[in-house]
Design brief:
The chain is an alpha+beta fold and 421 residues long. 35% of the residues lie in helices and 17% in strands. Strands 1-2-13-8-15-6-5 form a seven-stranded mixed beta sheet. It has a four-stranded antiparallel beta sheet with strand order 7-14-9-12, with no helix packed on it. Strands 3-4 form a two-stranded antiparallel sheet. A hairpin with a 2-residue loop joins strand 3 and strand 4. Helix 11 packs antiparallel against helix 12 (362-373) and helix 11 (338-347) packs across helix 13. The longest helix is centred in the C-terminal third of the chain and has 32 residues, at 375-406. The protein is globular and about 90 Å long. The N and C termini lie far apart (78 Å). 27% of the residues are buried.
Amino acid sequence: MPAEAHRRRRCGESKKWKGAGPEAKAELQASTLVPIHPLEIKPLGNAYTTNENIKDKIGAFARLPDELIIQVFEWLDAVVLLRLSCTCKAINIPPANDIPRLSDLGLKSFTEEWADKPFILTHPVRSWPAYKDWTEGYLLQKYGDIEFRAEAVEWPLQSYIDYMRDNSDESPLYLFDYSFMEKMGLKGGNRSGSPYSIPACFQEDLFDVLGDQRPDRRWLIIGPARSGSSFHKDPNATSAWNAVLRGSKYWIMFPSGPTSPTPPGVYVSEDQSEVTSPLSIAEWLLEYHSEARKTPGCKEGICEAGEVLHVPSGWWHLVVNLEPSIAITQNFVPRAHLANALAFLKDKPEQVSGFTSDVKDAYALFAGMLGAKHPHLLEEGLARLGKLQANKKRKWDAVVKADSDQGFGFGFAEGDDEKVP
């Protein structure tokens, strides 16, 4: 039945239903192929205010009439419905939280306007050979016997894909391999023969001055629905881009700073070296997702196949695959966040990661090689670093002064504190 005719039929039935007595209602319901919902829900009503049909995103269920889908949902208990709402691809993202979507972006605009903001680019990835070719079947045919890293294990790709296709784990193993280009015998970056080309806005990477001594920077990511990464920041204060080749990913992100709260349910040690959060992504979504959406600075988005998402330096982010997915991600240091990288390498050497074991002082190595190749950038970065450290000291002094003025209490109830000057 055409959608308009269906709408008219449903509206007519609803009017009759509202004005009918018990006997008339029974007669009307008996004459209807699909019974009217007892709460008078009209699924097609949302079609008047939406720009897309989210029913197209519910997989095989899209073949069923709306009324039948609702009847199926009525058989599910509250816990199952909540889990379904957390993993459904048709996630209803509040407009204020929606990650901006752009067709493309140049380096100048990125540096001046977008380096501190998450965004999704919809155009660049679609020209990549990897986007056109890298299906599960293609990768298995060419690289099925090659071992890739899936969290704590090394598996041949064939074994991992077999696992991915037939598992019901709440937190499935996630293939996340940093040496995939070498294992697959491929060239990286924007060189001829590379399976991907770095989008223009991400092409400035100051860690490039390190050459072969740079830390790990790119990963192949493959995983089934429900797999993903719990809340974390990217290593060494780098920024990152994440390009989806197959499937789709849900992202929820939060800025990090002296005045920004950590994501709900995430607890960080004083030096930020340890992060404690619920055991699984599903557990966090069930317990904290609603609260997180109301937290200042929260950003959410779904990155579809053929799109790439930007993760600014220092942002907390959680990612979950809404369906089996294949992606490439790469970390980089843009000039807008050079001071962040310098500060991290200098002040948190015990947290520096990805360098080979022969690198004993990553800060000295990076500052030295950057100064030799781009002295003006190093000068700008160090000046910015000095300002950042001065700001932190002023804020700390303000906190200490406030504590000194107010005193410190050991009481456990309001009014019973004994102040200590």
